Amino acid sequence: MKFIEAAAMLSVGAFSAGASIWYVTGPDAEPTEAELNGVFSSTVAVQHEEPQVTRAIVNPLPLGAADRIHAIISQTEDTIDSVRPLTPEQEEVVAFFEKIARDRNAEGTTTPDALVSFDNLTIDGLTVRYYYTTADRYDDLDRSTLLSEQAALVQSNICNQASIRQLISEYGVGYNYRFISKDFRFIGEVTGDLEICPS
What 8-state DSSP symbol labels residue 128? Predict the structure, then answer.
């Protein structure tokens, strides 16, 4: 319990007990020692009350969703960017991407018949993360080919779009793409990079 809360409770307890004595004995009567002890003990009792802890029953995630989240998070090697202080311009960029993420995630999974389908988009500080699921199970995939093809697509998009290059070079935005298999096993990730783009 915080000091201010304890002091407030102590004051309220003493006031209510004092008001009770005044009501019973009258405004001109002096309280007896027993009545004052009662005020003191009721005040102390208020101070020492233990808080009641209640827990709400929450529906757990379905097993598949929990496994999927764990598969993605457990393979993460990146540090969380959101602890770094952002400039006002960077905060505007983050707000822009957060709106895009809300809108895009509301649309849900797309192109389920493709080799990879979009699952969701998250914003972690200045890192924009896309999550995709493959149409095949982990053991049925040529993982290195899949990741190299996706890396080529990402790099092509970054290198060919001036607005993306500007966000990376001037604002520090990072682009990360994570892939899991149909059976929720982490395949790998691709990170966009300006280094291979021609000047």
Answer: E
